[in-house]
Specification:
Helix content is about 15%, strand content about 40%. Helix 3 packs antiparallel against helix 4 and helix 4 runs antiparallel to helix 5. It is mainly beta. It folds into 3 domains: about 140 residues, no CATH class; about 110 residues, Immunoglobulins (Immunoglobulin-like, Sandwich); about 150 residues, Sandwich (Immunoglobulin-like), CATH 2.60.40. It is elongated, with a radius of gyration of 30 Å.
Amino acid sequence: TVGLYFPESYKANAEFNDKGLIYIRYGEPDVTARTGSYSRKSAPAPSNESWLYYERPGSPKKIFHFLIGEYSTGNDWRLSPLPYPTSLKYSFGKRDLLQDRLGWDGKLDRLYISLRRDPNVRGAINAMTIESQLIDESRKAIATALSHDRHTWSKKVKPLRIAHQIANFRESDNKTRMYVYLGLPAPATDIKYSIGIFDKYWRKEAGDAAQPVPSDYVYDSFSVIAKDYVLTPGQYHYSMFAEETGGHRIGGFSDHLTVPAFPAGSLALSDVILAYTIGQSGTPGVIRRNDLSIVPNASGAFNEATPLLIYFEIYHLGLDDEGGTAYKLEYKIQLASKQKGRKGKQARPKRGEKSSITLSESRTGHSEFAAVHTRFDLTKLKAGEYELLVNVTDLNSGESTSRATKFSLVYSDGS
């Protein structure tokens, strides 16, 4: 091992321990508990500390116990399934440590009560059962905690709302053109954004560095922008970040995505774009497809005065003997699920009474490709979350394929 240097473990523990592993993931705990000494003996309790993180949206309550072992040195704090060493024999010692953590968890409270009120054999057995349950639960909870984290921000920093959608379309050379379209709070003149597309090994494939948000297209209090990237079909990671000048509002997201292929030989559909406007070439738009200009709706929210506009493409339609195509389009709009009002009763819409729309039409053409755009009147629908299902049937080959997307309908008075 010539040329290698290994630090002594007691020096490493001064800088690195299990407290640090938890702190860098979840930040400062909401409540901290320590027990200095036992009530019946002058001897100090083992070095102990427990952290409680309250439940928050998307993050359940978490409890972590830390101990320094009897023969450990320095700052060697290690995670423990219980607030005391499993080797501790004194019931009063266990009670003292549990008392300082009362109200944190139902099982800890039951363990305290069992040790306090029932010191006989039956109580000891009951306490051992609860301890065994806590140890088993702790193993699972710690494994989950060490594979997740939680973002915390300065109190001056506020979240920046970002609406975003992705739509994939066929490109030449067996590639796929992926559109990322965003809605950022208007006016967005002080906001810069960046987008990154990475392969499954996190090597950057495409993206745009930080740049200001243009203010050309503002709809429903959103500045609408779109970027497109030509990619090889496969698995990717993507991320987007936006920040207001001065850093007082920050937002972003990241996720995995599958970029689909549109191979020849079988009927296929692109993704469906929900739009504010769709016009002929030369009219305002942030996405341009087949002589059309589109302003997409990244939020997917519409009101009763705004028709639902959609755009999609069909690939590999079968040709008849005369080189013609024939296909049937079916559209179904329906409530995504049963939705309830605030008091648990079925929500009562103030306007539309319908919960679904079904339409169909037949079209013909002279190419294996078709670009489709249409609109839907939403005034007769209830407010709520909806799913739009687009189904295409090739009347020449008999093949069918479909795409689904979601949107919400909110009346302008908030109902």
